Amino acid sequence: MSERPGRLVLLGHPVAHSLSPRFQNAALQRAGIPLTYEALDVLAPDLPGAVRLLAEDRAAGNVTIPHKEAMAELCDVRTTLAERTGAVNTFWVDEARKLVGDNTDVDGVALLLTELLGAPASGPVALLGAGGAAAAVLAALERWPGCTVTLYNRSHTRSARLAERFPIVTRCVESAEEAARDATLVINATAAGLEDDELPLPIESLPFGAAIADLVYRRGETAWVRAARACGHRAVDGLPMLIEQGALAFERWFGVPAPRDAMWDAVLVPDAR
Question: Distance between CA 263 and CA 162 in Å, rounded?
Fold first, then answer.
């Protein structure tokens, strides 16, 4: 981008829990950019109007639950990854005053899984969820040969629709327990555990030796990650993905390397997790 954004925002509902303002503002300060990143709690019916006003202000920003798929429909231009996933988590206004949507979640997922596993994922994967986050997971996994995905979502219609778009999904099943049965990697791409200690899948249903990736993050990690690790599973929450997608977004907005060290420092202070 050649023109600096007029505002930087996070759109979602809820957003009070988000660490994005904390680390993005730390990055802005480190880079000497005189902007403030703010979280805007926007209900679904209000999203089109809010986006229209933000575009008039040349705003840029991020999108979180539950608006990623709706945001893709509102953008004038979508990057290849945004088209592939049907979801937008990063946006800006270009020189032609077009609203551009991108998906930096995909590379955030790839980093998260590589750090967890020590190598690209392979073998049978259980994926819980069928929204924009799940689409980002599938877009990341389809880059790696040898992955097959069993998909579970409470809405079978949504599961089937997502599976049609991603041939890496070999089965859609009726329960999370069935999805995880033979998996070597189990990924939670639902909102379970975001605001409470709900587990997306009982710990006793995890196969022996399976690795766990929870795209949800909370201060002190999610209950699912803590319980899985206590039972000997490799497990990680969504914080590395959150930081990486935010860093990539920063680079889209400003065309300079993101100060990832400042971002991590901002979230690892004692009261940040």
Answer: 33
Active site residue 68: yes
Residue corresponding to tokens 């690209």: 120
Global pTM?
A: 0.94
Helix (H, G, I), strand (E, B) or coil at 35: coil
Low-confidence ranges of the chain (pLDDT < 50): 272-273
Whole-number Å distance between alpha carbons of 199 and 205: 11
DSSP state of 181: T
- Domains of the chain are 8-103+246-267 (3.40.50.10860), 106-237 (3.40.50.720)
Element (H, E) at 18: none
First to last CA, the chain: 32
With contact defined as beta carbons under 8 Å apart, do 176 and 128 qualify?
yes
Distance CA 30, CA 270 (A): 20
Q: Please, are residues 242 and 266 in contact by the beta-carbon 8 Å criterion? A: no
Among 5, 37, 68, 193, the active-site one is: 68
Residue 66, token pair as written in the block: 């539950």
Among 38, 45, 32, smallest CA distance to 18 is for: 38
Measure the CA–CA gap between 221 and 64, rounded to whole angstroms. 19
Q: How does pLDDT run across 98-137, given as a tens digit for each residue?
A: 999 999 999 999 999 999 999 989 899 999 999 999 999 9
SS3 category, 162: helix
Q: Give the three-class secondary structure for 270.
A: coil
- Alpha-carbon dihedral sign for residues 125, 128, 130, 134: negative
